[in-house]
């Protein structure tokens, strides 16, 4: 894993955090620039507050041909 701030590979694990949907996210710390970040940093899920299970269900519904409005209702 690379640091999203300085692109260094000198990254160490720095604890975990339990989210609202009881999902555990691993945190990391860069030894070069001392920034902390998690495994979601730099992805579309980075600042999302919706549980990942809901997002997964919506994406699966859309990929199976369900319309946008129908997916939103479900």
How is the secondary structure organized here?
Blueprint: E1 11-18, E2 24-30, E3 36-38, H1 52-63, H2 68-73
Antiparallel strand pairs: 1-2, 2-3
Question: Overall 3D geometry?
Answer: elongated
Distance between the termini: 36 Å
Order of helices and strands: EEEHH
Task: Describe the main β-sheet briefly.
Answer: 3 strands, antiparallel
Short synopsis of the structure:
The chain is an alpha+beta fold and 74 residues long. The protein is built from two helices and three strands; from the N terminus they run E-E-E-H-H. The protein folds into two domains: 42 residues, N-terminal domain of TfIIb, CATH 2.20.25; 31 residues, no CATH class.
Name its key features.
single chain, 74 residues, alpha+beta, N-terminal domain of TfIIb, three-stranded antiparallel sheet
Description of the structure:
This protein has 74 residues and is an alpha+beta fold. It folds into 2 domains: 1-42, N-terminal domain of TfIIb; 44-74, no CATH class. The protein contains 2 helices and 3 strands, in the order βββαα. It has helices at 52-63, 68-73; strands at residues 11-18, 24-30, 36-38. A 3-stranded antiparallel beta sheet has the order 1-2-3, with no helix packed on it. A hairpin with a 5-residue loop joins strand 1 and strand 2 (24-30). The longest helix is centred in the C-terminal third of the chain and has 12 residues, at 52-63. It is elongated and about 45 Å long.
